[in-house]
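Feature request, filed as a ticket because there's no other form

It would be nice if the structure record came with a short human-readable summary line next to the C-alpha cells. Right now we just get the raw output. Example of a typical job, pasted below so the devs can see what we mean:
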Amino acid sequence: MSRIGKKPVAVPDGVKVEITGQKCRVSGPKGELDWQLPAVISAQYDSDARLISIAAGAESKQARELHGTSRSLVAGMVEGVSQGFSKRLLIYGTGYGCTLQGRELCLNVGFMGRGSKDKPQFRIPIPEGVEVDIETPAARGDLEPARFVVRGCSKQAVGMFAAEVRRIRPPEPYKGKGIRYDNEQVRRKQGKAFASGAA
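Raw output as currently delivered:
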C-alpha cells in the first residue's frame, strides 16, 4: 500500500463531496470538479469527520501504482474548489505585452512581420474554467516585464494553459526575452565577444 494513498483527505468547510461508484465529484466556492476513479481504486466519504479515504481494491502492482496518485488527484480537486490554483507569467522584451479581448488572451511578443499596433500577433482562446488577470499590460525595457496571472480550480487546466502560452515565446538565453513563469531561473549565455586586434 502507498503511504501517501493511506492518508485521508481533509475536506474544509464549504466543500461538498459526492462519491457515486467510481465517480468522485467535489464542489466549492471556486467551482466544481469531477473525476472517474480507476477500477482498482475505491473512495469513501465520512461526512461526520469530513474525510475522504482512498483504498486500493487489490494488491496488484497497478493498484499500488494508482493508490497514491489517486489520493493526490482527489486532494488536488478539494484544494482547487476551495482555494484555487494560479500561475503568474512574465513577458520580458521591449514592446512586448498582453491584453484581454473577451475570452481571448492577446500577445505581442516580438515576431517581425506578424501583427501590428492595433492587431495582436497571437490570440489564444481561454478554456472553460480558466481565468486570466492582466497585472501589467506592457513590458518596459528588458527589466520591467508585463505580468498576468492564470487562475482556476483545476490544477491541470491552469498548468496546461500556462504551458501553452509560454511555448509561444520561451525565454531566450542571451537577453532573457520571452515568456517565463514567475521565479523561473533562465540560464543565461554570454554573447559573442568581438576582439579588436591592432593592425
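Something like this underneath would help us a lot:
The chain has two domains: 3-82, 85-181.
The chain is about 20% helix and 35% strand.
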